[in-house]
Design a protein that fits this description.
It contains 27 helices and 22 strands. It is an alpha/beta fold. The protein has four domains: about 240 residues, P-loop containing nucleotide triphosphate hydrolases (Rossmann fold); about 170 residues, P-loop containing nucleotide triphosphate hydrolases (Rossmann fold), CATH 3.40.50.300; about 70 residues, no CATH class; about 160 residues, Sec63 N-terminal domain-like fold.
């Protein structure tokens, strides 16, 4: 076999002989013949609910219910039927999801089923038909409505609450919102939890039963609706089964794969710092009818660069090319910005796309639409596509066995892995789905094989105290009552269970020990700074500050107390609020042409005025983000009508990140808009600010 290139590999400081990069030639192990023969489209048959779906419907009639099942198993059908039963009785339902994109999708689905006049959506960005009998929204909005209900002394107007993607309870950043909802939701409202498979579903159900005084029934489905077969892509182009068939050790590598892994200098697909030849890989997958595929890559840049390596994928199916071109033309007509997208050529001529959070929401929606309609051959994505978006393929290809969590790369856990492989195999479109392990520098083949059969990971409590939580609970509770609420936390319950079993769980033990003390720490600071009285009640400032349900409520509140915010200038107010949204370090060496004197004067005044308070927060042990000029300059330019391309050059970030900065700024401004009683001018200005920055291409047509 001829090599295209050789390069030197160094291991532990020692030079070994160079590895080969062989020429790729499509091939498949003989043992795959029967497997590949199973590929095809199932016959259309009348829908018949699975047993687990019927069990879940029965359970939610008399209790709470936690449904845990693989991606694509049909959990949404359970939700639809449960909502229909409540709707037929004249009741209201609340469907909460973690993502605005998922909420938008469910809003569309439910509108078709129940009629648009009967469905509303609340995501922050969208507020439509809020009094409808069926509400779809984000978990944060539902949590905020529970805050309001407790404050007003009323019960949430709903006969059913559904939490989709309930395994987010264990999400480090956002799990606290799920846990708060479960604690605050009145027990009279049945709670339906829909989740990917999780390891400790019974423990979660026991906890909910203990705090809600009603049984929570677990309905578990472990069988995938479409079977998954694991493959290994050898650098020669030959496909092998990843694991050996049968036996007690199902994760044991196939002998030829084991031989590859164990060799001192295995052939490789590319040099370590380069991406593999995706066009040639797709040629192999296409030969064996394994497309469309989702390739999971480690970074946004890799996803974008991968497109240029797909030149070999020029399709010769004129009918499919024509259908793809027509559909793209229709979608572009709804979103003209896409017509100038730098990756449009790859999409139209190679039927491939790049999907990640650095892309605009409108572009991601186009890719999701085309992929769902079967018009694309492949999408190159980061792991974000695995979370909650309906984005199936026949095959998923893994090039990395680790995942970046925002701080470091860590090995995939079983839940993350199953979320990704859950995209392989389309219900009603495939008899079988495939997960292909592609060898490379960041790919642990043995770990990948092990993850194929690993049980799902446990979900642990991520509850944490923050100022917004404390302020909002103090609206309706005394500190003593809040202590009782915190005793209802999943963290507390897990500790009690762990102690009974005499097992040591350090990460839980620490969290439990500090939860109440952390609340008191926040409470003391709020008393010191005039938001709470000595008796633990909110002051007038504490009451209006509780409306700022944002990441940095006290910093924004202090700005209003000091009267340093530009309360009459919408563009300037938007720019200043962006300071408290930004999470990135920024290079503030900006062309002075983009820095109006008014903005600079306001920025430095705000920064100087807030410095003593920020220092006090830091001294008391609270995190405070530094204030950078660039986000303010970016939002000011956008709010004053500068074109999108110029805004990108000022921001020096990707389109998706810029859109997120604008969306989060708008969300903060919405909370300021509620302060009509104490800051009427600022509230009115905030409303005008939102109108200035929430425009195309940040906003999008949701009816693609």
């Amino acid at each position: 076999m001829k090599s295209r290139r050789r390069y030197q590999v160094r291991t532990r400081g020692k030079s070994i002989r160079p590895s080969r990069i062989p020429k790729i030639k499509p091939g498949a192990d003989a043992g795959l013949k029967k497997v590949f023969a199973y590929i095809g489209v199932p016959d259309k048959t009348p829908f018949k609910p699975d047993l687990f779906q019927l069990e879940a419907l029965s359970a939610i009639e008399r209790s709470d219910c936690l449904v845990t099942a693989p991606t694509g198993a049909g959990k949404t059908w359970v939700a639809q039927q449960a909502i229909a039963r409540i709707y037929e009785k004249g009741g209201k339902s609340w469907y909460a999801s973690p993502l605005k994109a998922l909420s938008n999708a469910k809003y569309g689905e439910f509108s078709e089923i129940f009629g648009a006049e009967n469905v509303g959506i609340l995501t922050g960005d969208r507020k439509e038909n809020p009094d409808a009998p069926i509400i779809v929204g984000t978990t944060e909005i539902l949590r905020n409505q529970l805050y309001d209900a407790m404050h007003q002394g009323i019960s949430l107007s709903a006969g059913l609450a559904i939490l989709d993607e309930a395994h987010f309870l264990g999400d480090e950043d956002r799990g606290v919102v799920w846990e708060e909802i479960m604690i605050y939701l009145p027990s009279r409202i049945p709670l339906l939890l829909l989740s990917a498979t999780i390891g400790n579903a019974d423990l979660i159900a026991e906890w909910l039963s203990s705090i809600r005084s009603k049984k929570c029934i677990v309905v578990e489905e472990t069988k995938r609706p479409v079977p998954l077969y694991p493959l290994f892509f050898h650098p020669s182009g030959t496909l092998f089964p990843l694991t050996a068939p049968g036996g007690p050790r199902k994760s044991r590598l196939h002998k030829k794969v084991a031989a590859y892994v164990n060799t001192d200098r295995p052939p490789l697909l590319s040099t370590p710092r380069k991406l593999p030849p995706f066009g040639e890989i797709m040629r192999v997958l296409n030969k064996y009818h394994l497309l469309p595929a989702i390739f999971f890559l480690k970074s946004r840049a890799d996803c974008d660069h991968a497109l240029d390596l797909c030149a070999d994928n020029l399709t010769h199916d004129n009918n499919k090319k024509a259908r793809l071109s027509r559909r793209i033309e229709e979608l572009v007509a709804q979103s003209p910005h896409i017509a100038r997208h730098r990756q449009l050529w790859h999409l139209e001529h190679l039927a491939v796309g790049s999907h990640h959070s650095g892309q605009l929401p409108a572009w991601r929606l186009v890719l999701e639409t085309l992929m769902t309609e079967g018009l694309l051959c492949a999408v190159f994505a980061t792991s974000t596509v695995s979370a909650g978006v309906n984005f199936p393929a026949r095959t998923i290809a893994l090039l990395n066995s680790d995942k970046f969590n925002g701080r470091e790369f860590l090995p995939l856990n079983p839940t993350e892995f199953h979320q990704m492989t859950g995209r392989a195999g389309r219900r009603g479109m495939d008899h079988i789905g495939f997960a292909v392990a592609v060898p490379g520098k960041f790919m642990d083949i043995r770990l990948t094989a092990k993850l194929m059969t690993s049980p799902p990971t446990d979900v642990n409590s991520q509850i944490k105290i923050n100022f917004s939580m404390v302020l909002n609970l103090l609206l309706s509770h005394t500190p003593g009552q809040i202590e009782d609420l915190l005793k209802k936390s999943f963290a507390t319950y897990m500790i009690i269970k762990a102690r009974k079993k005499r097992t040591a769980r350090k990460h839980l033990r620490n969290e439990h020990k500090h939860l109440w003390q952390d609340f008191l720490h926040h409470l003391d600071f709020l008393e010191e700074t005039g938001y709470v009285t000595e008796s633990g009640a909110l002051t007038d400032d504490g009451v209006w500050a509780s409306r700022l349900r944002v990441d940095q409520p006290l910093m924004i509140a202090k700005g209003f107390r000091l009267k340093v915010f530009p309360e009459s200038d919408p563009a300037l107010l938007a720019a200043i609020i962006a300071l408290f949204v930004n999470e990135r370090e920024s290079d503030d060496s900006i062309d002075k042409a983009f820095k109006p004197k008014t903005l600079l004067k306001t920025f430095f005044n705000v920064k100087k005025s807030l410095l003593p308070f920020a220092t006090l927060m830091t001294d008391r042990g609270f995190d405070v983000r530094p204030l950078f000029l660039r986000p303010a300059v970016t939002i000011y330019a956008w709010a004053t009508g500068q074109p999108w391309e110029k805004i990108l050059s000022i921001a020096e970030i990707e389109e998706g990140d810029l859109a997120m900065l604008i969306l989060r700024t708008a969300d903060n401004l919405r909370h300021i808009r509620t302060l009509t009683q104490v800051f009427p001018e600022a509230a009115e200005t905030a409303a005008a600010s939102i109108d200035l920055i929430m425009r195309y291409p940040v906003t999008m047509d949701y009816d693609m």
